[in-house]
Amino acid sequence: PLDKDELGSKTWGFLHTMAAYYPENPSPQQKQDMTSFFDVFSRFYPCEVCAKDFQKEIKIQPPKVDSQKSLSKWLCDMHNIVNVKLSKKTFDCNRVNERWKDGWVD
Ligand code: FAD
């Protein structure tokens, strides 16, 4: 079985990559689907405390499904909320596409 940390880092990899390839101009259907995705995801994520807190966070700040940039930025903010909770370093969300889409331009 995956432990909580391995499950977490693999899941974040999937979620950030999905956001990176979300359309820049999504259709109404795609926006609705992405909102539903996070709603369902938050109810089935197989770490109970993680799922409970994530459900609360997306109620406060629902997914910003208007564009690739807004979705990636929103997800980065959500991940930073978890980073703060776990006393990890926060990530600079201006660099989220470099990390998860375009590759670092160092
Ligand atoms: P991770 O936090 O898994 O990050 C993986 C990589 O993502 C990093 O190496 C970095 O390059 C990049 N990254 C870091 N921050 C960001 C960001 N803000 N935006 C974009 N990229 C970033 N664990 C708990 O113990 N308690 C919880 O309540 C909890 N809730 C979670 C909720 C969700 C929805 C998910 C997916 C995971 C949750 N986890 C929780 C797991 C936790 O977030 C980490 O995944 C785990 O602790 C492993 O951390 P890590 O150091 O490998 O890096």
Explain briefly what this protein structure is.
The protein is mainly α and 106 residues long. 68% of the residues lie in helices and 0% in strands. The protein has five helices and no strands.
Explain the overall architecture.
The protein is an all-alpha fold. It has 5 helices and no strands. It is globular. The model has no long low-confidence stretch (mean pLDDT 96). The structure holds flavin-adenine dinucleotide (FAD). Flavin-adenine dinucleotide binds at residues 4-5, 8-9, 11-12, 16, 45, 49-50, 53-54, 76, 79-80, 82-83, 86, 88, 91, 96, 99.
Number of strands: 0
What kind of sheet is the major sheet?
none
Helix content range: 55-70%
State Rg.
Answer: 14 Å
Measured by DSSP, the beta-strand proportion falls in: under 5%
Order of helices and strands: HHHHH
Bound molecules: flavin-adenine dinucleotide
Low-confidence stretches: none
Structural class: mainly alpha
Features:
mainly alpha, 106 residues, binds flavin-adenine dinucleotide
Task: Please outline the helices and strands.
Elements: H1 4-20, H2 28-44, H3 48-60, H4 68-85, H5 96-102
Helix pairs in contact: 1-4, 1-5, 2-3
Bound molecules: flavin-adenine dinucleotide (FAD).
